[in-house]
Description:
Layout: E1 2-6, E2 9-11, E3 17-24, E4 32-38, E5 45-50, E6 57-59, E7 67-72, E8 77-82, E9 91-98, E10 102-104, E11 108-112
Parallel strand pairs: 2-11
Antiparallel strand pairs: 1-3, 3-8, 4-5, 4-9, 5-6, 7-8, 9-10, 9-11
Amino acid sequence: VQLVESGGGLVQPGGSLRLSCAASGLTFRSYFMSWYRQAPGKERQLVAGITNTGRSTGYADSVKGRFTISRDNAKNTVYLEMISLKPEDTAVYYCNARLVQEYWGQGTQVTVSS
């Protein structure tokens, strides 16, 4: 199983980024998918999750209204659209796939700074 994140980078406050996570080696359409993030010196936290069909989503309070999770089961890919980014959004963002087992990507760095 491989989860490969991409789309991270350096962005100014108020800017936007779109993260992607391409999955392989698993039946993607069966898995609940999530995005987590971990800032330096802090614990990893759940940012957003989406059910296997994409019909239901959930968000951490800190990102509600600014982040949108979506998925394309035909492309085995989950996305995280981030707008109105703040310096406190700076972290490594990880993709997570969960069914009976759980899998993680290697992470992609997002830095929000002027």
